[in-house]
Amino acid sequence: MAYNLLKGKKGLVFGALNEQSIAWKVAQRAVEEGAEIVLTNTPVSIRMGTIDELAKACNAPVIAADATSVKDLENLIDQTMEHFGGKFDFILHSIGMSPNVRKGRTYDDLDYDYLAKTLDISAISFHKVIQVARKKDAINDWGSIVALTYIAAQRTLYGYNDMADAKALLESIARSFGYIYGREKCVRINTVSQSPTPTTAGKGVLGMEDLLDYAERVSPLGNASADDCAGYVLTLFSDLTRKVTMQNLFHDGGFSSMGMSRKAMTTYGKGLEVEYEDIRLKK
Ligand SMILES: NC(=O)c1ccc[n+]([C@@H]2O[C@H](COP(=O)([O-])OP(=O)(O)OC[C@H]3O[C@@H](n4cnc5c(N)ncnc54)[C@H](O)[C@@H]3O)[C@@H](O)[C@H]2O)c1
């Protein structure tokens, strides 16, 4: 059901690779809510993924840009403004990648060139996007910028590796730039901390299936899907949240406030029984 929440608004969406992508759902829902959008991704993701289908459905142009390249971002913002005939209202940063995770390097054996790439792609690109947009005065007053993050920024989760450090930096950038852009132009900047979600990036996380199951059992409302996430992000692009800025907002079915749940305890207990049985048989 649509509410016309974004009627008359214009926005730029990074990170739609395929229909599992969180950015894909945000793009679809934003258009349903009355927004006009521009889509962007890296040239290789545009080639390998299915963004053209989304572009057709959303009547949106696709402009290639590597979010780590300031030159690409300058061209992207110029072209986006040209397309819209002026400033626009919102940006979604939905970008994450760790070469260390991809190459199976564990946190106690990081390759530092890869770490630099992880931080550049997954966090510093957020700074670059905002800095370029601000220098070009691309965002309307009371605009909204959102990036997606994960609770591994605050708590250690097995297997999340150097992406945890990238997310901590990403959330800090939202606060630091949120102050500057807020006081000047009332542009708000927030991060949304999403449940584990079965997307291409998500599936790269070590033990993702178990993590999804664990989070589902621990969260009183269950895991938030990519579509749920899109709904929440749209409220942050809308005028209903004009005074929300510099926040890390958990969108995780309650996971972040839980310690142990009955469902998880039951499963853990069953695991212990198996473990005790193994020990007894070995004696
Ligand atoms: N899937 C999860 O479990 C989960 C949970 C919390 C937060 N997130 C975050 O959500 C965001 C979106 O990820 P997703 O789960 O939809 O996966 P996804 O794989 O669909 O999206 C990741 C996107 O990042 C893009 N990207 C990578 N390098 C880039 C670069 N240099 N420049 C521009 N774009 C680049 C990819 O092309 C891809 O479109 C990421 O920030 C991710 O960390 C995901």
TrEMBL record:
The entry's keywords: Fatty acid biosynthesis, Fatty acid metabolism, Lipid biosynthesis, Lipid metabolism, NAD, Oxidoreductase
GO biological process, one term: fatty acid biosynthetic process
Reaction it catalyzes: a 2,3-saturated acyl-[ACP] + NAD(+) = a (2E)-enoyl-[ACP] + NADH + H(+)
Database matches in InterPro entries: Enoyl-ACP_Rdtase_NADH, NAD(P)-bd_dom_sf, SDR_fam
A Pfam family of this chain: adh_short_C2
GO molecular function, one term: enoyl-[acyl-carrier-protein] reductase (NADH) activity
Pathway: Lipid metabolism; fatty acid biosynthesis
Family, similarity comment: Belongs to the short-chain dehydrogenases/reductases (SDR) family. FabI subfamily.
Binding site for NAD(+): 15, 21-22, 95, 167
Active site residues according to the UniProt entry: 150, 160
Root EC class: oxidoreductase
EC number: 1.3.1.9
Protein name as it appears in the record: Enoyl-[acyl-carrier-protein] reductase [NADH]
Superkingdom, natural source: Bacteria
Protein species of origin: Alistipes indistinctus YIT 12060
